[in-house]
Design brief:
Layout: H1 2-24, E1 29-31, E2 36-38, E3 41-43, E4 46-50, H2 60-70, E5 74-78, H3 81-84, H4 99-108, E6 112-118, H5 147-164, E7 175-180, H6 191-203, E8 209-215, H7 219-222, E9 228-232, H8 237-246, E10 255-259, H9 280-288, E11 292-299, E12 310-311, E13 319-320, H10 339-349, E14 373-374, E15 377-380, E16 389-391, E17 406-414, E18 417-423, E19 426-427, E20 429-434, E21 437-443, E22 450-455, E23 459-467, E24 484-485, E25 489-491, E26 494-495, E27 499-504, E28 526-534, E29 540-543, E30 549-554, E31 557-563, E32 570-573, E33 581-589, E34 597-601
Parallel strand pairs: 4-5, 4-11, 5-6, 6-7, 7-8, 8-9, 9-10, 10-11
Antiparallel strand pairs: 1-2, 2-3, 12-13, 14-34, 15-28, 16-27, 17-23, 17-27, 18-22, 18-25, 19-24, 20-21, 20-23, 25-26, 28-33, 29-32, 29-34, 30-31, 30-33
Helix pairs in contact: 9-10
Length: about 600
């Protein structure tokens, strides 16, 4: 009996050592003349983009399994500077920011990884991934050789290297390639700056394959000689080969770093969808030609909290993006297979290596409907104001060391008169209140910065609640991204001074206590709180169609923004953040302050404009 136990122990030890040896095995990954070479054998990447902060950490593995079942062998992800260094010198790689764990789970699920630390990412993400505090550094110029920028960039990328460089394929990990910068050719053409990027990445331990990526018109500007020039947004086989050959000594391999199966949405415009049929012959053609691709996005997920970006260029409106990043991607916002997923899977199956089969597609995740949620507790934002910062003129979010959320600007003015109230440089949305009563709303999207008001007699309290709707994430206005009232306030042509600024970042909803006696809030924005009980949990979608504009938290998790203008009318509430028994919901409502009943439905509404 003892000998049998000893034999079993020896056998288990051998198995363990073999597994450990396999796990630690290093690989080679390099460029051939027309193909990537993994351990000296041709390898075609069929990759899908999926961003760790847009998916609850608890769901990363499920999404990876869905990727594998569609036929993907690789996952692409950006790394987001503003998540990992939210305040200067304070780094965070924990919880949903644990990008190293995301990469490790991909390896456990049999997936390689393409890493895109940039540090500029675009990605419809706040400030293109840059932390807000870069705006505070006098003279700092992002995406340039300016000394302060390079100093902060270096400190950040060294921290990223500590987390991720050991996970490269040549060190026993699963990171195949690392991208420097991101579509830089659409922004500039300074090759010395790109060389600095390359040097900083190498200094940070990224000693494997580096590459650049750019759209077709900008590839010459954004490519650094010696690195693979990947192409974005082109899937004509001949064109892809021509563009890469002409910038890479007549050689491949050929990589479409962003292959778009659809597009993103912004507030007040229609939901973007593209039928799968439009992509099937193109996907088939590039895979038949041996070209590697990265679908942007395979799974979009949700841009929760205040992390959505915005687009703006001369001659067009300011366009803040919605919280849903569904993207009409193959995997929907909740992680379920779509019709597009199944049709892409059929194409990919045709191109699998001989003898390889795909796992069965996991069943759709169960959903629940919550018929009614009552929010019985209420606070005016006037009840939760912190100590103010005083200044003659209004201060920006950046002046207040505040990244996101809201600021309440307050002053006292003499009443008994009418005139135009003008907020110069409003960034981005303002609720104007006179003695606690709403006088109007100003919206940067609509180029609104002025409001005609009539003041009653006496000393009047003027409150202006300003929301940061998302910093611009693409183009030259990256350098003009301060938030709040950025250039002062005028009434009837005269400057209004003597301001108090109250920071309302709403970065920890659990700090709000609902035992305060309400003061006269008038029609000021309110925070409402309620409880709901669940016997069964599942994914669900909060139906915000009867509400106005605001933010929702469930069990402390910020689900994102809602806004009746659409097209998004629901907020995705993942099963991972619900629990059997009592659950807590809090809503910040800016406009329809009398609402107190909410329900959920079992499907998203992403295509309804008002």
């Amino acid at each position: 009996m003892l000998n049998m136990k000893l034999k079993k122990l020896i056998l288990l030890t051998i198995i363990f050592l073999n597994v450990a040896n396999t796990f630690a095995q290093t690989h080679t990954f390099k460029l051939g003349d027309d193909a990537f070479l993994l351990d000296n054998k041709p390898f075609q990447m069929i990759s899908g983009e999926m961003h760790y902060p847009r998916v609850p950490r608890e769901a990363w593995r499920q999404r990876m399994k869905m990727a594998k079942a569609m036929g993907l062998n690789t996952i692409g992800t950006y790394v987001f500077w503003n998540l990992h260094e939210p305040q200067k010198g304070i780094f965070d790689f924990t919880g949903n920011n644990d990008v190293a764990e995301f990469v490790k789970i991909a390896k456990e699920e049999g997936l390689w990884v393409i890493l895109r630390p940039s540090p500029y990412v675009c990605a419809e993400w706040e400030f293109g991934g840059y932390p807000y505090w870069l705006e505070k550094e006098k003279g700092l110029i992002v995406r340039s050789k300016e000394a302060k920028y390079l100093e902060e960039y270096r400190k950040y990328i060294l921290q990223v290297g500590k987390q991720l460089a050991p996970l490269q394929v040549n060190h026993g990990g699963n990171i195949l390639m690392v991208q420097i910068e991101n579509e830089y050719g659409s922004y500039g053409s300074d090759k010395e700056y790109l060389e600095i990027n390359q040097r900083l990445f190498k200094e940070s331990g990224f000693d494997g394959l580096l590459y650049t990526c750019d759209p077709e018109p900008d590839i010459k500007n954004g490519h650094l000689p010696g690195l693979l020039p990947a192409i974005n947004g082109v899937d004509n086989v001949n064109k892809v080969k021509e563009l890469i050959n002409s910038n890479h000594d007549g050689k491949g391999p050929y990589y479409i770093a962003e292959w778009y199966p659809a597009w993103f949405d912004w507030w007040g415009t229609k939901h973007h969808t593209v039928p799968a049929e439009e992509y099937l012959p193109r996907l088939d053609a590039v895979l038949s030609a041996g070209i590697s691709i990265n679908m942007y996005m395979f799974h979009g997920g949700t841009t929760r909290g205040f992390m959505n970006g915005a687009n703006y260029k001369d001659g067009t409106p300011y366009e803040p993006q919605i919280s849903s990043y569904d993207y009409d991607a193959p995997l929907d916002e909740a992680g379920n297979a779509t019709e597009k997923y199944m049709k892409f899977r059929d194409i990919i199956k045709k191109h699998l290596p001989e003898g390889q089969t795909l796992p069965e597609v996991p069943s759709p995740k169960p959903t629940i409907v919550i018929p009614q949620i009552k929010l019985s507790q209420k606070l005016s934002i006037f009840n939760i104001l912190p100590a103010p910062v005083k200044n003659t003129t209004p201060l920006t979010f950046e002046d207040l060391n505040q990244a996101y959320g809201f600021v309440l600007y307050r002053t006292t003015v003499k009443g008994g008169r009418s005139g135009i109230l003008k907020l110069n440089g409003l960034r981005d949305y303002a609720v104007v209140l006179i003695n606690g009563k709403r006088a109007g709303i100003l919206d940067r999207r609509l180029n609104q910065d002025s409001l005609k008001i009539t003041l009653p007699k006496g000393d009047i309290r003027l409150d202006i609640v300003v929301e940061n709707l998302g910093r611009i994430n693409f183009g030259k206005y990256l350098l003009q991204n301060k938030k709040g009232i950025t250039q002062g306030v005028q009434f009837s042509g005269k400057e209004v001074n003597g301001w108090k600024m109250y920071s309302l970042p709403f970065n920890n909803i659990n700090n709000i206590k609902f035992n305060t006696t309400n003061i006269a809030g008038g029609s000021a924005p309110v925070i409402k709180k309620g409880l709901f009980n669940l016997k069964t949990i599942g994914d669900t979608y909060l139906d915000m169609r009867n509400w106005g504009k605001g933010v929702v938290w469930v069990n402390g998790h910020n689900l994102g923004r809602y806004w009746s203008v659409g097209p998004q009318q629901t907020l995705y509430l993942p099963v991972e953040w619900l629990k059997k028994g009592s659950n807590e919901i809090q809503i910040l409502e800016l406009i329809k302050t009398d609402k107190n009943i909410l329900k959920s439905i079992d499907k998203p509404i992403l295509n309804e404009l008002n």
